[in-house]
Amino acid sequence: MPTSALNPAPEVSMATPQHPAFGSSALRQRRSSHSSHSSHSSHSSYAARHPDRVPPKAASPNRAFLAVIGILVLVLLQTFAGLWLFVKGFLLTRHELLGANNCTRPADSAWTLPAPPAAFDDAALLKWAETLDPQTGMGECRLKPTHSKAVVIVIDALRYDFIAPPPPAGSVSDRVEDAWKPNPHYHSVLTLPAQLTAQHGSPVHAKRPGPAGFLAHFAADPPTTTLQRLKGLTAGTLPTFFEAGANFGSAGTGVGRVHEDTWIAQLRASILAQRGADARAGLVFAGDDTWATVLPGLFDNDTMWTYDSFNVEDLDTVDRGVESRLLPFLQPQHADRKAGVHDHWRLLVGHTLGVDHVGHRFGASHEKMATKLGEMQRFVQNVTDAMDDDTLLVVLGDHGMDEHGDHGGDGELEVGAGIWMYAKSGFGYTARGGKMDAAEYISTPELEALLPSRIAFSPLPSPPYGAHRSIQQIDVVPTLALLLGVGVPYSNLGSVVPELFAHPDTLLRALRIMATQMRTYLAAYAAQSPDLAAFRSELDARWLAAVRADAELAAALHGRAAQADVETLWRKAAQAYHAFNRVSLVSARSVWAQFDQVRIGLGLLVLVLGLASAWVLRSGARTGLIGRLDADTADGDVMVERASSGAEELGRVVYAAVRTPALVGAATGAAAATATQLVLAGLANLTLLDGLLAGSAVGSQLGLLLSASGANLRRSIRTRESDSVAVPTTTRVLDAAGWIVLLLHAGSFASNSLLIFEDRFVLLASAVLLLLRGAFAVGAASTQRQQVRLGLMAVVALLLVRAASMPRVCREEQAAHCTSTFFAGTAALNSPYVMVASYAAAFALPRVVAWFLAQSRSYVGVAPMFFTWALRPALMLGAGYWVLDWAVALDAVQASGEAARVEWVKGWVAVLALGLPGVAGVFWVFAPLCLEIRREAAAEGEEKTKVTILGYSNSLGSSYVLLVGAVFAVLFLVTQPAGQLALAAVLVAALAAVELGDAERDRVVLHRQRTETPAGAVHLSAAEIASLALLGYIGLFGTGHQATLASIQWRVAFLTSPTVSYPLSPVLVALNSFGAVSLLPPLLVVLAVVWNATPLPRGSGRKMATPSVMLHALLTLALYNALLLTTSAALAGTLFSRHLMLFKVWTPRFMLAATVALLAQAAAIAAALAGWHTANKVNTIFGTEFA
What we know:
The protein has 1187 residues and is an alpha/beta fold. Among the domains are: 1-54 and 831-975, no CATH class; 146-170 and 210-243 and 255-427 and 464-496, Alkaline Phosphatase, subunit A (3-Layer(aba) Sandwich). Helix 2 (62-90) crosses helix 20 and helix 26 (832-854) packs antiparallel against helix 27 (863-887).
């Protein structure tokens, strides 16, 4: 705000003694060290002689701000306690059973069903079923292997349409509007799987032993992150949503390790049982180092080569390593083949990463994708050429990718991987009719409704493709186990691929083995958890139906029935066992996360009480809380019951209110947790730490709420009545509007559709608040100049908010109602035009911020130097990094041989762009205030020379905005160019909103002057704080994010290094994902508090209420975030806990709310610390006191 009657620039006359608070620099007098010392002595003598003329030393603001920090820490700890309890109850990992399938019975190719039971009643059938169990009877646990060796090639992010056969020529509509055109970057590039499958036919149609292939859509279970998919591919288990966070685990940490049985463990055990425990198993691995995390110790140590999996900039190293390590095992004439090393292998596993990294780096529709898929074509060709008849080849994707190369969620393109299984010796003869499809043979209409065997896939045309053969990703586990002649993993929930078990008798035996093991696992799981209790009757009925069909087949076989009848019963039994397997899988999926209702309830209780406590603390910051405080009397200091005045006293009242209840609560919680372990089985999982956190949090909250009742409540009512007179009607309306927006934002979480389009709601709500604030500001302005200025501020803020929301990444559910604009086209590339605009914004933004400072004549002192030599270079380096990132991938740069040098320069640019704001932050700590002393010659007839202190009226705000700029520069670097433009728009809009807020507070001051209302602290309205919070969310969405895992921009983890570096890489990803919504709002709120808050000079006899105003504002922001968190937690953990979209919509939004609540509260503490430091500077220079 410009200097005005409310914010005057002080004038100091040269004829009057200079106040020592201004220091010798005020008069710019040049003295020797001696004269300076003499001056100091002279001043001391003067003070001693005239104590009435020299104001006493100003009181330090430390105690007041320390109380602010303490209260904010209390709120953070209570929020953390509530989240700890809720998350442990809601986002549990799936209960792991550590049993293993102890399959010791050898395979018997002549095995047949035992004699049927004498009677076919339920009891007799279940008794007869025990004879089919390999542990209790004579049943099978393995089949004779079709192949003794296997090669498994995992092509990371291999989407189904990357290997699917193209539509036949002339089968696609000729109409232009209907025509489907293949994407030249990934369609018909990796063609070998489709070619060999078409050439040799599927195994179910084989007339004689010979090459056979099977190609299908490979449906992955979300979350589609590599670590979780490898668990499914090896153990056949279902993941939980929360396990996605383990993807940042590393080998040796134990994070993400599979503790359950796997087909690789079964194969290793089978080999070592024959060769001896000390022998080499012949299990070889090369590729993604995630395998070392998931399956440590299963591959032979001397034939396991791992490569860094997170370096998305490196497209070739892992792929080259896989080829060079595996091909010597297959090619007898390979130059690197060594006797004793490359002989006698049983399993080769290779995991390439180039396709995935191209997707992350450039998107799917990029020429480098065609290059990489071509390389995979040659690699697979080399494998097929070299493999012998006794080898089974499996080429598969662990997950797919969307058009931007992202994955992690459950979108069609993310879960749509591809699989190809191939053997030169085929998979045996078939006894089915040539027209009988294998999937159709074992399926029924009911099962097709549950898990269809054929699905549509949008990247491929329909017609001619009505549907594509699809299998569940975990189906590969029992399939590989049985084809290799080993037991099915204990916890497997997948089913066999029927096409690979050609004969109906072999297929039935495979389904029976699988169903028996699955029933064993489900029975053990039911003994550990009640999750499946609701499905027990249905599963029992399905099992009994399968056993009955099997008994009927046994009766037919032993009764020498006609072959046609036997074949009919073969199919009936196969359908029954398949139905049991599939219904079991669907049932388990519906309860894939078990909820601990006790922890969920305790967590919600702490979060709800935390809302009430934060409200009480916020009210205390505004009006004070009644407690026992000292009072000066004639008899000395005594303790009396009175309302706190200022932040320091509020801190003492709060400490007294929560100290004892927190300790008592902690002791009670610990005792309760210990007792429940011994007495109440339902609460047996409540640990001692849970009890301590719950008890101390609830105790402190109840202590605070009880102390705030009674007299405090009555006083609060009276204060609200007086406030209605102390503030104008427009301020009350703005307060109400702010709370209404907050309630609507939280309430929108109850609607699936509104939650999906949260980005549009945030834009609308922000625009409405800014429009309302602008209209009130213009209407209340006292001059035409103010009307024009404030009106322009509001319009500029509205336009910038709209501009900041233009860069957008659409989530899958928004479908046709959204167009992604964050990247250039469909690829994950940044537009050159956007990069040019970002570079221009980086150059201009410091000047725009300087303009806001110039309005209060605060762009003086160190400010010009800071903006010119720190902020602008940091921003331009941040924009330049992404220009280099774009340039290094150009064909011209690659062909010139300068790519490595450009990469090196890019890395150092990122280091400098991070280092410069760090240096600027250190400079800010020790820098003086943004002040300048300006002399003005005396007017004619005057003897005194005037000295004006420029920047005085906004000395708090001008200093603080330098820190905001340094933090903003870091966020600018970690954001891609379109997001950089959005962040720049958000920052300028926020400064305009802060100016509107300053005008709103001026209006309150003028209202009090007109109504002769007693002066008091002027607090930020709820609308102003809500506007800043919503700007944070606009920044979140404008930087290319949504409340989905797929929108995480992993590539920023490699800004400063080509490999993952801890802890910097996760920090960079966190800043990119949450910086705009977690760091900026608290900083902007504190900036709004100190903006144009004119310091009260030494000797004024008054104290500034800045600490209390700051605490009130930050607690209002905390309430905003806490209400969103509590609402999302309550809806996800209770009302929608069994909703179909729980893990797709509500769980990611809860995780976002939880992260934002914690990070924003931590940032609020840091922002308050920075405000404290700024206040100390003002206290030192001007002698301003704070309370």
